[in-house]
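Re: [help] complex structure
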Amino acid sequence: MLDEFIHEPRIAYFSMEIALRSEIPTYAGGLGILAGDTLRSATDLGLPMVAVSLISRAGYFRQTLDHEGTQQELAATWTPQRWAQPLDAKIAVRIEERTVWICAWLYVLEGSMGGRQPVLLLDTDLEENTPQDREITHYLYGGDNIYRLKQEIVLGLGGARLLQATGFSIRHFHMNEGHSALLGLELMRRYTYSTEDLRPGESPYNFPRVREMCSFTTHTPVEAGHDRFSYDLIRRVLDNGFDLEIIRRLAGEESLNMTRLALSLSEYVNGVARKHAEVSNAMFPGYLVHAITNGVHPYTWTAESFRQIYDHYVPGWCHEPQLLIRADCCIPDAAIWQAHVQAKQQLIDTVFSMTGVTLQAQMPIIGFARRMTAYKRPDFLFSDLERLKGIAGKYPFQIVLAGKAHPKDEVGKQMIMQLHRHARALADNITVVYLPDYDMALAQTLTAGSDVWLNTPLPPLEASGTSGMKAAFNGVPNLSVLDGWWIEGCIEGVTGWAINDAAGLADGSAHMLYDKLEKVVLPLYYDQSDGGWIRLMKGAISKNASYFNSHRMMRRYATEAYGG
Ligand SMILES: *Cc1c(COP(=O)(O)O)cnc(C)c1O
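Output below.
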């Protein structure tokens, strides 16, 4: 079953979450989408990879919302047998001094251009394990800190061992976020100096060898995004074959910081946008953090109507999305507008079938959808309802929202309820809908069918952001706070608009957003006489989509991170 994949050395890509397809709920948000797009691009480019993740049988969760916006979380249980094949190999790790057996499912990702890549989904739901251990791979980002550590042992140590047991030859390991950093310990165990070469007291581990095999991508400047485990916990849970003194030196004196461990064991480290690399360098002095700005997978995030016009006017765009740089000159305005009208109609149909609300095709739709969490400031647009009504009185618009809050993120859940209250308060003036259960499919429909894609994070906390790039592939201009990728992507009035200059960030006031909407964005939308709006749509395609795609990103990883 694996023969087609193990004949050549591959890059092993480790990620706690991965968005393989909408029906497989093994992802929670941007990190998983990025992992999926990474693999999809590697597939199109013929770069041999193997992805390693958890089976997450109960998924992240399915979100339902009542009238008040109260979030309910339902298990998103899926059936691995439907999509993946069980592999024979089984390996074990030690957890709390028990043996925990791990097997894997093989999912084959089939690219839009004929390529195939293997994904190993690790699973502890085996008869040999205790009932508790069988659930280690059930809940994505579920449970407490101990549960998380167990998952990370399975992912890092288990993943590395399973690759070996299944016959993969790995030429490089890429850790997507720190969750998988324990794989470095497994590599340390593999690469040691022979004892006769060592002087007394010298470490037996061949760190240069381990480091040259590893790359690490850090994804968040939010402190809570970096896993830490107390050494007390480590002593109880992790295999006691590892020398804690050495781990302390690599991962931090007070607690085991997974980001530090990954930093210490990787030759190549990067952040996901230039600004994020800068912030990360300040957060982790002593390490060199490069910048590889994220991208999104061209085919996956482009609506059918746009795929067709790109196929016609920019043939080859699926392999070389940089060709879209020609889009502004080569594609007739009418074709762009027609494609957009179709994508917008799809969104309108989706909104109707999900909520019973009919949006107006002639009226602009402002889209905002992402994880609902404090730093993303989903309520920013609603800071001053009277002002918002005033703007809508002059230039009517509609708002579509979506996003899940992590089950333990009380603030995020409150925000969803708050957004529902705003929607009710605005009901007579502005149609605001909140679509439940944001997922890959909904993200595609929303980013393609909106007229303006809004993002209002609190700088510098948006490491990159990718939904705005999806919008760009569909000719949807971004209106966004300058943070993450938008610092690189925004050309004012050409690809979209900035809400602030970098200095005016944190004042919490939304007047810059309101001014932009009222004086620039909406008037331009309503004055379509000189083609200004379509010029902007083309700017988004030719200057954003041509660059902020995961093919460019992977070509950089391949040459700069994996090449060494
Ligand atoms: C693209 C995507 C995200 C990431 O959106 P950001 O704007 O980068 O936060 C999150 N969830 C889903 C389902 C997505 O498709």
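The first helix runs from residue 3 to 6.
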